[in-house]
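I hope you will forgive my troubling you with a question about protein structure. The record follows directly beneath this note:
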Amino acid sequence: MNRSERRELRRQKKLFKQRRRKYAAEERASVRRLNKEQKQKISAQKKKYRQARIEKVQIWLSWIFRNPFRKPEKESDTGKTQQIFMEFSGPEEKIRRKPKQNKWNDFLRSSKPAIDPQERQRYKQRRREFRKRRILYQIEERRSIKREHHEMRKELTEMQRRILVARIEGFKKHLIKFLKNPIRKRKIEGAEKLLLSQVKQDIKKQRITRLKQMPSDIRESFLRFWLNRYNQARFIRRNASGFAKLVKAAWKIQALRTGYLQTLINSTVFFILSFLVVYYIFQFVTIYTAQAFNIPSKLLSYRIEWPLYTYSYLYTRVALVVIFGTGPLASLITAFLFYRLFLWSRSKTKYAKLFFIWGSFHSFNLFFGSYIAGVLTRTGFIYTSEWLFISNMFDVEEIIFMVIAIVVLLIIGYFATKQFLYSTSSASLIEPKYRTIFVLSQVVIPWFSGNLILFFSNIPKNPIELILLYLTTILMVLPVVASYNSTSLQQMNLTFVPRKAKTGWIYLFVVVGLVISIRFLLRDGLSFI
């Protein structure tokens, strides 16, 4: 389709829209005109009725003032206001009374002018005709719109067909030209050829210049590298001294000192408590799944032992995939559940939000971190992918999944930064000036001390896969440390009024009791057959 045809199509569309607007305007004008006529007739009738009532009242008042003490004449027996009469219908007797006659009501009722029946009939006829005309107009309008759409669709289809034919013809021409002479070059005219040769010469000169400057560039790069390392060392030393001064300044303020100490204790306690809850959910889901396949197991505080012989016929491919996959899957579901509960509780409770955010933290680590630890130690979650894909050690899919797990943990840590700041119990603790101390007391120190306590609780038996599971959490802690005071988070304000912070001593005693009881109860293992 050429330009003139497109212009003609746009003009037709514009005319069609103008015609539709004109029809709609005429319809609205006719409706307004009929409504106006009807209102005028109603107002005229009301005015006539009002005037008749006024005249009747004037006559009645003049009669009263002329004869104020005149009594009304007695009515005959047949014209009494209340007449009781009897009617018999069958065996029962019914007494009916005529309604009371009131001359004043009859007088007022008679003052209302009667509407001419012919006029009323003509009005109803006009309304019916108007309704029919409107319905016919709407039907015709819909038909015209459908007809216009059909014509436009036909024109559009024809235009698309012509465009497709033109494209196919152009492709055929280019293909035939290429097949006739596939190595033909584009002809270059004199001025363009001269310009191209000049560009080539300039590129050669630049390459020669860079080769000559390469030794000096290497020397400058080497000096720049060590100068940057020196500046970084000075910056770290200066920041260390500045951080020490900041800690001293915060320690002198009673509210900040108490708040950071309470945050440190509460966060460490709930770090350990949430790990124990999530970790043993993981373990019990794995054990009960193994029982479904009649595979015995033994639960220890640091791992699950499998008493069966390695080449037992019960260790089928399906059993291994399901047993070692249900635990991480349950942890992933728990992670999302705890995150949703944290979003609900971060403006309502003091301790639940800490438990839920650390529970989500550990649950994500038990899914992605256990795969990383399994790839390196060939235990646990790795059996699922190994038997699912029938892969060997460090195959391509294992490396890809491990890289994906590392990247996902880093992303989760980055997005968890804001949620850790929301888990504070006081808005003054997360001010940009003192936020470094808050991140240390809320995330870094509880992470380090909590993992250390969990490590010492299993001494002397700490398998390498459990140690790696502790260490993979650093992939989520590092983004928190790197982005806690970013530009977007510096303007963050709490959308709720936090409650007064308290130290959760009861939860501390619960954690101590859990660690000790788990140590003694699972010292020899708990068998499930």
Observations:
- Residues 178 and 184 are 8 Å apart (CA to CA).
- The first helix runs from residue 3 to 66.
